[in-house]
Design a protein that fits this description.
CATH class of one domain: Alpha Beta
CATH superfamily of one domain: DNA methylase specificity domains
Strand content: 15-25%
Radius of gyration: 26 Å
Structural class: alpha/beta
Largest sheet: 9 strands, mixed
Number of strands: 22
CATH topology of one domain: Adenine-n6-DNA-methyltransferase TaqI, Chain A, domain 2
Number of helices: 17
CATH architecture of one domain: Alpha-Beta Complex
Distance between the termini: 48 Å
Amino acid sequence: MGIILDYVINATAQYMEHMPKKQRKAYGQFFTSRETAQFMAGLFDVPADKSEIAILDPGAGSGILSAALVEQLQSVQVLQKIHLTCYETDEKVIPLLRSNLEWICLKSVTPVEYKIISENYILSQVLEYNHMIGAIPSPDKFDMVIGNPPYMKVSKDAPEAKSMPDICYGAPNLYFLFAGMSLFNTKEYGELVYIIPRSWTSGAYFKSFRQKFLCEGTLEHIHLFGSRDKVFDRESVLQETMIIKMKKTHDKPKTIAITTTQSNVDFSNIITFEAPYNIVVSGEDSYVFLVTNEREVRTLELLNNWKHTLPGIGLKMKTGLTVDFRNREALRNEQEAQAVPLFYSQHIQNGKVLFPIGKENEYIVTEQSGLLQENVNYLFVKRFTAKEEHRRLQCGVYLANKHPEYQKISTQNKINFIGGSRELSECIVYGLYVLFNSTLYDCYYRILNGSTQVNSTEINTMPVPPLATIEAMGKELIRCHDTSETTCDNIVRSFIYAEDRGSEDNPERIASAS
């Protein structure tokens, strides 16, 4: 065992030595490791009654995933033939792919019949996908689809983007167009296994894709990597990546398997968790919540009992207004006539917003209304944090009465701010601080978004209590004179308990979730 994949891996390594990464990156081409390919191939359930199987490998590259799957199928005794279709447009790698597929045919116990399609995977199926005149009435469908698609953004006017208008919003990334087309290519009850970035699981940008993808198919398995630089380790790729297994069916299971490893070489050291499907895939925007343990499930269950969102109660998180490097001529290091404060993430310290702090360019002189906002109370939240940091949500209370000399202020675009249609009272701002400084909310956001960026669109979809409850939380924090994470946790926990959200019979649920 292993002779098929070993040969393809070694041939690919030789190719990589002679083909610079810069050239491969132009195609969004990053090769799958042996261990990852074997794990992905092992996720398929082989139908017991099939003597022939049709496999699709879109964006096949050198054929690593095809080799792993064919090798996995060698032990299936009822199987009499494998039909393998590979799409690949890179003329430099196609000879290697053909050579590897010939080796697969030669060494496979089960006869393999293959074809390489060098046409654009998306554009070649535009008529069939959109059910247009001239489409093939019964296009090929596949039992198994395995893929490591190209990771590359294209413009909103690119032919690929226009080919799949039902799932595109703005400038799409090819990886989710490939995933959407691959599910279209999958037979009813067939299976799809893909390794793709995690970015599709949340946010408005991928909403249409998620809604269609998760309507026409069911997630059966999610695999997460603890380290983003260990997935394509030979490629030096920094990418939050995941492996998904989909089944082409409308039937939704009770649970979904979520597994975790630190890298792509330790699949023997794997952590497995069975999560409720309706917790993982939920909401009208079909977000995918990547929970890995019971604590995270309890966090979602507790907070999802609150049915409001910030916009629903007259509040909204927005991104800071000023891109400083585009407005250098307006920036000042010190106070002068007409200058107003320009707040950066460095001004957010220990739950407060401190100003001035002697930072370069912390004032701005401008008449552009788009760069200025009213000097009223806000909650400031950092947009970016380091992956290693204890918290993803890091916020500070900004009170306008601390700087009464200004009518306007500005915020740099690396922070977010929460304001309202009407000026927020101090109690409401402190109440927002209680929520966003709590462990529960930080945990919720980490589950919702695996990146280190705090996205205002996603924050505006998170559940929050009624405005009166937020105000009461703020009053309690002011009374305590303690803005620590522990105090915020205790306040949030006490309100959840008091509102009888399923916790009176089992108060440990709330304690453990925090």
